[in-house]
Design goal:
This protein is mainly α and about 325 residues long. The chain has one domain. Helices cover about 75% and strands about 0% of the residues. It contains 14 helices and no strands. The longest helix is centred in the C-terminal third of the chain and has 29 residues. The two termini are about 15 Å apart.
Length: about 325
């Protein structure tokens, strides 16, 4: 099954990348890349790490029901997780983040994974909000309308399910226990029964309207800050589009990266980014040059810092395998 997922991600990346590069004047493309003013990447990277710090605060707030952890201790864990997503397939960095948190702070993996799932859910909802806010001013290219519709249904359905889990845990627990007692082998039942309780603890943030509002607001700040990076990097190139177009690009690109792909979201990041800019009058060579530089500027700094944090924590690549093993242990 794991190899099947890897091959699927590779195929999707190849299709997206080949489509993105079709009709590209490579000589002109590299000329634009060479002539870009890369000083604009400095403030862009600074703003991006401000967004990572905001992500750390959001996770810190969601974890407080499990264990209060300082931002200083949590920041390296967040960075290691994002590095893992950039270099390992199937978003293994999410599991690695929970594994590192268990190792350093003794937080149960199943509970912390619930908070990570919530993060991804709120990220998706804010991306959809960006799309709907910008649509009156920056219409979505028709090819992505179906993609946005599907994600709207998925994320809203997931929100309803998690709200039900968080607000009616006793009722859902009885249903879960009934299913476990009938379909899980007798020897595994004690461990599987406990997983639900730990997972529910990780969803406690959904029980409070105040918590929901703070998490949603912080998520909006995070993605607005990332859009500011898109805007700053744009100034390295001789073109300009409105900030609302970059908000739309941020949303569609990051929704597309939830699709299976190779590590680093090759193709799934680039194709929609180029298409959005091209729809607003940017030449394909220019759009591809900008998207490539932006992609590297998003990938390289946090991946490098994550590798340093792994080194300081005396962790190695074998810890990815251990994190996967731990994930299997907490899966019903």
């Amino acid at each position: 099954m794991r190899n099947w997922k890897l091959w699927l991600g590779a195929i999707i990346s190849v299709i997206c990348l080949s489509t993105a590069l079709r009709g590209l004047d490579l000589e002109h493309f590299w000329e634009i890349v060479r002539e870009a003013n890369y000083w604009w990447l400095v403030p862009g990277v600074m703003v991006y790490f401000g967004a990572v710090w905001a992500r750390t605060w959001r996770w810190h707030y969601m974890l407080r029901h499990l264990r209060p952890i300082s931002l200083r201790r949590l920041f390296p864990v967040v960075v290691i997780g994002y590095m893992g997503n950039n270099v390992y397939p199937a978003r293994a960095g999410e599991v690695l983040r929970s594994y590192v948190l268990k190792r350093r702070e003794d937080v149960p993996i199943s509970a912390s994974l619930a908070t990570v799932v919530l993060e991804r859910l709120f990220d998706g909802l804010v991306m959809l909000l960006f799309v709907f806010v910008t649509l009156p001013f920056a219409p979505l290219p028709p090819i992505y309308t179906t993609l946005v519709t599907i994600f709207s249904l998925v994320f809203l359905s997931a929100l309803m399910v998690f709200l039900a889990l968080a607000t009616r845990p006793a009722r859902i627990s009885r249903l879960y226990a009934w299913m476990v007692d009938r379909f899980v082998p007798l020897g595994l039942r004690p461990r599987v029964h406990g997983l639900f309780d730990k997972f529910i603890v990780g969803l406690q943030s959904l029980r409070s309207p105040k918590d929901l509002a703070l998490i949603f607001a912080s998520t909006a700040v995070i993605w607005l800050a990332e859009t500011v990076k898109y805007w700053l990097v744009m100034h390295a190139f001789p073109f300009e589009v409105p900030f609302l177009v970059l908000m739309l690009m941020t949303a569609v690109v990051n929704l597309a990266t939830t699709l299976p792909s190779t590590p680093g979201y090759i193709g799934t990041f680039d194709l929609p980014g180029i298409a959005i800019l091209a729809a607003y009058g940017v030449t394909k060579d220019m759009a591809a040059s900008y998207t490539l530089v932006l992609h590297v500027a998003l990938w390289l700094p946090i991946t490098s810092l994550g590798a340093l944090f792994m080194l300081f924590a005396q962790m190695g690549w074998q810890d990815f395998g251990r994190a996967s093993e731990e994930r299997l242990k907490v899966s019903p």
